[in-house]
Design brief:
22% of the residues are buried. The protein is α+β, with helices and mostly antiparallel strands. The strands form three sheets. Strands 1, 2, 3, 6, 7, 8, 9, 10, 11, 12, 13 and 14 form a twelve-stranded antiparallel beta sheet that branches. It has a two-stranded antiparallel sheet with strand order 4-5. It has eight helices and 16 strands.
Amino acid sequence: MRTKKTLCLVITAIFLLCIGATALTGCNTPLTAREAYDELMAALDLSVSGDMYGPAYDPETSATNGYIFYYKESVRTDSMIVNTNVNVHCDQDAAYKLHVDEDLMVDLYQETWSISSVTGGTGTKIGDFGFIVGPYPDADSAEERLFYTERPSDGVSATAPEYTDVTLYDDMTAEDFVASDFFRGYSLSSRLEELRNMPFEAFVFDEEVNGDYGAYRQINLVKLTFGVTDEYIADYAERTGERSMFEGCTYVEIELTFGRVSNIYVYRTENLGGGFFNLPQEMYSLYISYLGPNISFPNAGGYTADPALLDRTDLAFSRATF
């Protein structure tokens, strides 16, 4: 009798585990093309709702949607790779409350590498630059100052660099930096602008065109795989005078998590020789987190003092070496 009861308990436990696993993984719910497009547009609006200069600004959700954020972007062409990291972060206490007014900091860094082909790895660093804005490290006061890493002057190679001092203006705060014209070019809304303005007709979700195309929902994840029409690519170039981020792509993958854009991948097919071996290559990627990692400032040991810079009165900073 006890054996039967034990067996029943084991079977029940296994059954409950299976139900739990199913609940965690969930089932895929297919979305129509229109549903997928509407989900994407709503997620784009929410993603940039914290950008005070963006088209969907909502101050009530700004703390966690597009104001405090981190993104990592990689743009690959036939000859170079440009990697950009932007981190707008602040202190978060034990109750998960963000202290934007007290501890807002911004880290921005971009580097450019040469490559021999779209399938090749990075080669020589062409240049890099960056800014760190936030509480002045090891200072007597809490006033905020602008820091920078290293930016090669025009025409100077990265192997023998000479550096140009960059000052936006004196005593710039992190809030000032986020609101500056310079930062707008690196804002989250700037990275999502083309997608936000794409019409429904530009997207190709038809599985008959490509068996991998389509969209589905899985609990809090929505995944879209689609192509982009040639007509849109040509029209974008004519309207803006710039190349679309999707020009030459074979397909695009976008992941929406909890109603916001979390990942964008743009692929093109590269022939690896012989005319028969093709491999998808990542032309563009964008990863977004809506709670920027709270990276502490380096202490004084993380900087190399440069008397020529430190003696200046218009801006107190030292050249970074990390």
